[in-house]
Specification:
- By secondary structure, this protein is α/β, with parallel strands linked by helices.
- The chain has 2 domains: 179 residues, Phosphoglycerate mutase-like (Rossmann fold, 3-Layer(aba) Sandwich), CATH 3.40.50; 42 residues, no CATH class.
- 43% of the residues lie in helices and 17% in strands.
- A 6-stranded mixed β-sheet has the order 3-2-4-1-5-6.
- Helix 2 packs across helix 3, helix 2 packs across helix 8 and helix 6 packs across helix 7.
- The longest helix has 21 residues.
- It is globular and about 55 Å long.
- Keywords: Isomerase.
- One of its GO terms (molecular function) is phosphoglycerate mutase activity.
- This is Phosphoglycerate mutase.
Length: 234
Amino acid sequence: MVETRLYIARHGKTMFNTIGRAQGWSDTPLTAQGEEGIRELGLGLREAAIPFKAAFSSDSGRTIQTMDIILAESHNQSLPYQRDKRIREWCFGSLDGGYDGELFNGVLPRTKAFENGRSLQEVSWQEIADSLVEVDTAGWAEPWEVLSQRIYDGFEAIAKSIEKSGGGNAIVVSHGMTIGTFLWLIDNSYQKQFIDNGSVSVVTYKDGKFSIDSIAALSYREAGRKIIQDEKKA
């Protein structure tokens, strides 16, 4: 059986990313710098000549905008493209749109999970989800069981659709915490790390199981940046 591989990119840098606000289910467009970063990614993917079968993103504007640029720059505009709300970012509930510093350094550290001075790095994804539910006054934040299930189901559905068509590669655009959560669900030994805008994490799906090939690689962006620089010199 041909292996199925997902190339999962985080969307480009947005207005909220730039000013340090938690987006969650709220949305802002890519900045000019963010668009340029994804142009680099698209060019890098084109140079790598990866044969993609299909494209998938969340239904958020920032991932759709990112995918449009990737498909154009990698010359993959004819790929079948679907949007799946299951691979959206986490919902921060009443804290959506608030400053990252206030949320992660102010509000969450006052919850049960952060007792005894535990840092964000020491707290599990599940405990962060529990903390969000604890402090969300609107009741919109998703319990861990709901959050983790919808994220895994979303990526698994994508992998199964590619596998059903004979296997191959798919380009997927999602969100930082969603990607991090998915990688942890694949391998619980995975340590939380920053998933940069335009980075690509690669996972393989075979015999009903995922395995991690690479995490948050910036090599495609770097290759695309070199192409742009060479074009300017020519």
